[in-house]
Design a protein that fits this description.
The chain is mainly alpha-helical. The protein has five helices and three strands, in the order ααβααββα.
Length: 112
């Protein structure tokens, strides 16, 4: 995926970015993704089933995540693809730049 194609995908929705973050360190099924997002954000981001599965469907179509074969037909498990990792990294870098500006403008304390 070319850099300009990644950039064209940004910014991600808050829900979308958190779904990619939840998959960044391993495979998860839908409920586990939702639980991870809730835990990581201390409840600030709560994914309803419609949002979760609509976003998963779109990310599957975009090739950002892939379904993993599973012995349990009732539960689908997903993993982040290399393309999805590049998109998540680009979004993290974009957000890091926003935070840097906020620090420069004294909206957040300086580091170190």
């Amino acid at each position: 995926m070319r850099h300009d194609a990644v950039a064209a995908s940004l910014p991600l929705s808050t829900s979308g970015f958190h779904i990619l973050l939840a998959l960044a360190d391993g495979e998860r099924h839908g409920y586990a993704i939702s639980k991870e997002v809730d835990d990581a954000t201390r409840g600030a981001v709560s994914l309803g089933p419609a949002t979760l599965y609509r976003t998963i469907k779109q990310f599957l179509a975009d090739g950002w995540i892939a379904e993993v074969g599973d012995d349990d037909d009732r539960r689908r498990t997903y993993r982040l693809t290399a393309r999805g990792r590049r998109v998540a990294q680009a979004e993290a870098e974009r957000l890091e730049a926003v935070v840097r500006v906020a620090r420069e403008r004294h909206l957040l304390p300086a580091l170190g």
